[in-house]
Request: fold
Amino acid sequence: MSTEDTRHDTQVPAVGSDSPFRQERIARDDAPQYVLPLVVRIEKAEPPARTDALETAARAVLVLLTDERSAGEGEWAAAVRDWQDARIRKVVRRARGAEWRKAGTLPGLTVHGADSEVRVFPPVPLDGWPKELAKLQVSGTDLDDPEPVAPAEAGLPVLWLNPGLDMSAGKAMAQAGHAAQLAWWELTGPERVAWRESGFRLAVRTAARERWAELSGSGLPVVRDAGFTEIAPGSCTVVADHPALRARL
Reply:
């Protein structure tokens, strides 16, 4: 399963004006709950590589957040604000063939990786899913990397997965999206511009076991899962290691 109801743990003050960690925000648990739908294309004959799908999902979240329709008086802005005011839920579903084509007719954005495609949609109420998405499967998102994954390029933002957790690809995609979002909230305006102009280049890698404790206690943004699916409540799933944030430690 890849439905997320996630808590966030960060020791770095939130910089972005759209961060939900401002004092005037209403209690997150009392706010109406929304979910961000993501659909990954998984064709039987040519499934995407796991790491590429994770990276594409993380970039898809950032692309949605920075789309002009998500800001100001844009058509998605109210839904995005309501979603960020509550617990940050994301659901990753899979589609292929006609299902994928139908999903593409709904308002949203398709982000391409090296061999993966992820479509992200504006947030919807928990009980208000479009029928074209509601019928898509959550299970069956298990993916593999056919070849060993190369080390992340130097200077690239890295979303480090907890090596001690066994997560399905769908679960990990949602967690990577959470981590990218946490990093985004804490960047300054110029830092955001630079990341966006790079095409939101990033890497998703599994941390070495001997390094995980240092990463998760470093003050970088950490995603803590609420524990509704797959893993125990409070589990630290991903650390968002953006160079700009690391420079402030």
